[in-house]
Amino acid sequence: MRWVLFMKNNLENRVDVGYVDVGGKRLRRGYTTGTCAAAAATAAAYMALHDCRLQEVLVQLPGTGAADDPTELRLPLAEAEWRAAERWARAAVTKDGGDDPDITTGLNIWAEVRLNDMGEITVDGGRGVGRATLPGLKVAVGQAAINPVPRAMIAQNVRAVLPPGCGAEIIIFAPGGENLARRTFNPRLGIEGGLSILGSTGIVNPMSEEALKESLRLELRVLAAKGYQTALFAFGNYGLQFLRDKQINEAQVIKISNYLGFMLDEARQLGIKRLIIIGHIGKLVKVSAGIFNTHSRNADARMEIITAYAALAGAEPSLLAQLYQCKTTSAAVDLLDMAGGELAAAVYRRITENTASRAAAYTYDEITVGALLFGDANRLLHMEPQAAELLKELKLND
Question: In this structure, what DSSP letter does residue 103 have?
């Protein structure tokens, strides 16, 4: 017998996963692609075994142990099809990332299940799920990009609905995942052909800092696994564009957002020996004063720092007052440039050299660090000597 169930827009039937407060806003939580895959596989296994129609399925979550984290979710199916005579079924669950800006929200995550009498449960990926092509990831080269926690979650939930001795071959697929993957870290990480099935707790917390850090950690691990001992850290798109304009090989470049301290710790643990920090003056001026999370909510003393450096370079009190009143570092750069080349050069040099020395000290001097400072329109303001030497080495190794 074959049944097909369609639910037009599964996101209309939102599941309550709770809320979190982020920056004073109450944001709705969601659930991961791993949770969707586990739910779809569990539903498909149950339908193939019992020849029955399901509209929703209960899935157990790994959780975090926190009191307010759910340990299970009951999720509706978006689509389902089964043929009990063939011991086969497939089902889809619609990903809902809550209020997180997640490009996979609304995507159907499918599981196809074929039961057997071998007793084993195997999990693999199909269309729209990527495969690892480089070492250093959480899955081996050649494996489907289904991370260990969701892989275990899929197997454990399916095992719970099967009788002893019954096994299952499970294929997770995500139609449309190939296109979405181009907008993720996957191509840089060496995951080709589709998305990753992710989730360490099963729950998506909106604007998760930890999720971004995990992506950055993975990117650095892949870089190290390729054998690189020199890395280049850029804070954002401005830094990336600066490097492209300078025709720097992007294979060793990581966009680190605001998390320099975190990435310095990771680099030290992975055995990175040399590092160049590339940043706009708005970021590097903070690092030069020992601020290793550069988000403005965490710390913002840009004008105080620039004013202090200008004072040390001999700036007149009237200029110091003007610098202190600036709203942007771009405005401060304009003032410094008008004040004369020697004064501006001294400030830029101090920012860059302090950035390099403080970052090296942060790693207990286990990493040789150079720094490169730019302003608006990708204008090079100063290159610290160690950065110049490292860039020369990189070009020689191209």
Answer: T
